[in-house]
Amino acid sequence: MNKNENTIAFNIRVLRERIKTACLHSNRNPNDIQLLLATKTVLPPRIIEAFNEGITLIGENKAQELTEKYEALQTIPHETHFIGHLQSNKIKDVIRCAHCIQSVDRFDLAKKINTRLAAQNRSIDILIQVNTSMEESKFGCPPSDAADLVEAVSQLDHLHIRGLMTIGLFSSNKDAVRACFRRLMEIRKTVIKKNIPNVSMDVMSMGMSGDLEIAIEEGSTLIRVGTAVFGSRAYPANNTQQ
Ligand SMILES: *Cc1c(COP(=O)(O)O)cnc(C)c1O
Fold first, then answer.
1. Residue 236 predicted with pLDDT over 60
2. Atom of ligand 1 nearest to the CA of 239
3. Which atom of ligand 1 sits closest to the CA of residue 165?
4. 74 Cβ contact partners less than 8 Å away, ≥ 6 residues apart
5. How many Å lie between the centroid of ligand 1 and the Cα of residue 78?
């Protein structure tokens, strides 16, 4: 095995090739796919290795990890998105440290975020998370409610909806995985048709280490990749779904 294999730099190069190939297959421009590294459980020195390879966007799942790494990484230019399940009592920390919250999945949560931001006279970008696999264990609003949720949240002045996020079905059945991403693209279409003020559908956050090719073929504009770059985590598998 080559000495460079399994280093973060090597893994990022392999990942960029995967993105390029998937784009070739679907006639898309690799520049239209944002790469977010999911850095849960990854410590700052290894994240800095990724920054040295040109990575500028990371995602955290837990408020505590987000705030700890915010301090450790703040001298290095980058953006952080919150991609995990957000509890109301963590809103304050998350809006202080994240540029975008990808996991807004219910109106009461959106309203609480909005109220906090209003008090600080600022706003934040968000995505609406949809549970396209309809697994009970997963967060995200049901697909049938998503367009209505977008419309309701659009009324909150301090939140800017930039698009949608989903976690595809964890399965070796590619058609079932693809169906999740298609469902998200359908919701996007429905929302665009409604022509809702203060709503953009430019960001489609879908695709992870195991299914990014399918997601890119179906229209993803932002993939969230963890294990393909940092290796497997000590976490139990179901935690990675949050
Ligand atoms: C961990 C995580 C990812 C990355 O998953 P991998 O399979 O490790 O690439 C993507 N999205 C979310 C929401 C995650 O929690």
1. no
2. 15
3. 13
4. none
5. 19
Going through 91-154 in order, the beta strands assigned E by DSSP cover 100-104, 124-129
Q: How far is the CA of 207 from the centre of ligand 1 (A)?
A: 9
* Residue 101 contacts residue 156 (beta carbons within 8 Å): no
Give the Cα separation of 4 and 6 in Å (integer).
Answer: 6
Q: Whose CA is nearest to atom 11 of ligand 1?
A: 224
Summarize the confidence of residues 75-90 as an average pLDDT: 97
Per-residue confidence at 239, pLDDT binned at 50, 70, 90? very low
Q: Classify 90 as helix, strand or coil.
A: helix
Do residues 96 and 129 touch, judged by C-beta distance below 8 A?
Answer: no
> Three-state DSSP class for 125?
strand
| List of residues 6+ apart from 56 with CB closer than 8 A | 77, 78, 79
Tokens 């799942």 map to which residue? Answer: 61
- Pocket around ligand 1 at a 6 A CB cut-off: 38, 40, 61, 83, 167, 208-210, 224-228, 240, 242
